[in-house]
Amino acid sequence: MSDTGGQLRQALRLRSARISLGILAVVIFLGFAGGLLAPHDPLAQDTAHTLSGPSGEHWLGTDYLGRDVLSRLMDATGRSIVGALEAVAVAFVIGVPAGLASVFFGRFFDWVSQRIVDSVMTMPYIIFAVSVTGVLGNGLAQAMLAIGIFLAPLLFRVTLAAALSLTRAQYVEVAELLGASRWWIIRRHVWSKVLPTIAVTTAQLAAAVLLVVSSLTFLGIGVKPPAPTWGGMLSSDLGFLSQQPWAPILPAVAIAFTAGALNAIADAIRDTTGLESVPTARGLFRRRPAYAAGPATEPDGATRAQPVAIPAQEESSHA
Amino acid sequence: MTTLEIGRPTAPAPTSTQSSAGRGGALRWGALGRPVLRVLRSAVVVWIPVVLLSTFITFGLGALTDTNPAAQVLGETATPADIDRMNHYFGLDRPFLVQYFSWLGHAVTGDLGRSYYTTLPVTDSITQALPVNVSITIVALLIAILAGGALGIGAALSGGGWFDRGVTMLCSAASTVPPFVIGIGLIVLFSVTLPILPSGGYVPISQDFGQWLRFAILPALALAVEAAVAIARQLRTSLVGELRENYVVGAEVRGLTRRRVVFGHALRNASGPAVTVLGYYVPQVIGAMVVAEAVFNLPGLGKLSLDAAAKGDIPVIQGVLVTMIALVVLSNLLVNAALLRLTPHAKRREQ
């Protein structure tokens, strides 16, 4: 554990990681305090100064109702990231324990979980989130729960792949021979080794989910209209592009910087821990082409003597 | 376990003798038969549970809600008798599982029920909206393949040069910007600053091809960026890898031109992973289209679903979701079939 913790700390000493952490710290701070620190009321309309450019009073200008853009951006921060955090937390809680557990369960569990992963990954998740809010009522919590369930397979697959490569390590075999329980092995040996991989994927996932959240809030899902969100601001800017073509840049930059910082941290961890073969959150699916779904179901006795060995081979063949 | 064409990775697939000899049926299909059958079998084993599970989840969500759709649709002035009549009309007074299987049975025959609000058949609304999604998605994928391919090959050949670095930078920048932001940027560029293209709207392809293209090109471009960038990145990596292989050195020693080595040999082997990436991005593009429809004001499936979601029109929501899944499954099968045709690697690994 101390070994891995040291590696993670080493990663965070890189300059890119420090800058990214700084950005994230600002974002999180604004998430908590942005609404209080905002120079103006984000909802106050100043009808005399609609669509004005940057000025001493309104540093980033005003929108079509004369609301202060800077205050809206700051106030929107919390609302924009909380949804992403919820989805990632849901995905983490479902995906990681299941991934660790399925290493040690038999072929049947492996097969069933793989089928669930396949089916959940088929659905385009934005339309699924839209459907969920249509059925359960319009709320960010519902939509993000749906997205979190959707992304759980991703973390599941990463955890499973990383843990599988460890179960064939000699010290794990020795521990098994010495009579260690499965849970003890997972806690003592597997978890600390899998942690960097999971950290990389979680950071990338958070970045990807942030983009999904902004897409949903752009569509008007999850947040009631007057309350500002980054996606919602983009949506209202869209109607006034001929007057203020630069306006969408501000929320877009807020989204891109936050997502970019998360990706940079993921890269830093990956580089320092030497996780050459860690699949990226986006690249995860491409490591296991869909035709590989076939072999897992084939009764190929010769090579399937050890249930845990097969997916490991499958992974390495596409690495 | 047989190995296929390990020595000659560029040989076309039908040269394998083992399956055609074994079957003695139509020669071409004999050679192709096994991989194709395998794709079909995986389709049956994987996708049928997928469709069942995902429709069951969405249908179950509808049953979980405590609000009565009929009461919601008919408004506050409805009498209990009205609500009962509507419940009976839509079959909502039946047990949940009966509703699900009856819906499933009708869905198989292409009947997705009727809208709670307009009582029009859902299938009709979907067949109206579907061409918008399919045509723009196809254009987006074509752009992604062409642009991604060109960028990837260019980056690989200029290995480490300014073009390579530029493509890498472009790729990391594009992955932090959601497609709809790219769409807004394109509107600013091509509709506001340089007013040469419409900022939104749609003309059916059957009505006027030229006009359709003018309306379709910006959304397609916005959707293509993410996939193009991913294809470029993957193609660059695998092409650089292939160009280090022994057979490339051998081909160069034999005096083949660089062009023939790259396009005739290395590219074919390198394109397998890129096609897999494409396969992953097809559902992404289909999903991102929902947001692009809102940006560019297109009358597609996403708009249908958003409008239905705002009203709680569950049959329409379900219908769109099932159509989307069907699109994803279909495109996935096509990509897998293409992959099998394209790369001997795929066949070898499968065995």
How would you summarize what this structure contains?
Chain A has 319 residues and is mostly helical. Chain A has helices at residues 2-11, 15-37, 69-104, 107-122, 125-136, 140-167, 170-177, 182-218, 230-237, 249-273, 284-287, 309-318.
Question: Any chance you could write out the topology, listing elements then pairs?
Answer:
The complex is a heterodimer of chains A (319) and B (351).
Chain A: H1 2-11, H2 15-37, H3 69-104, H4 107-122, H5 125-136, H6 140-167, H7 170-177, H8 182-218, H9 230-237, H10 249-273, H11 284-287, H12 309-318
Chain B: H1 18-23, H2 27-64, H3 69-74, H4 80-89, H5 96-108, H6 122-157, H7 162-174, H8 179-193, H9 209-243, H10 246-253, H11 258-296, H12 301-311, H13 314-342, H14 344-350
Helix pairs in contact in B: 2-13, 6-7, 6-9, 6-11, 6-13, 7-9, 8-9, 8-11, 9-11, 11-13, 12-13
Per DSSP, what share of the residues of chain B sits in E-state strands of 2 or more residues? Answer: under 5%
Radius of gyration of chain B: 25 Å
User: The biggest beta sheet of chain A, please?
Assistant: none
Mean pLDDT of chain B: 78
| Unreliable stretches covering 5 or more consecutive residues of chain B | 1-31
- Could you state the order of secondary-structure elements of chain A as H and E? HHHHHHHHHHHH
Helix content of chain B: over 70%
Number of helices of chain B: 14
Query: What class would the helix/strand composition of chain B place it in?
Result: mainly alpha
Number-wise, the strands of chain B total: 0
Rg from alpha-carbon coordinates of chain A:
23 Å
Major sheet details of chain B: none
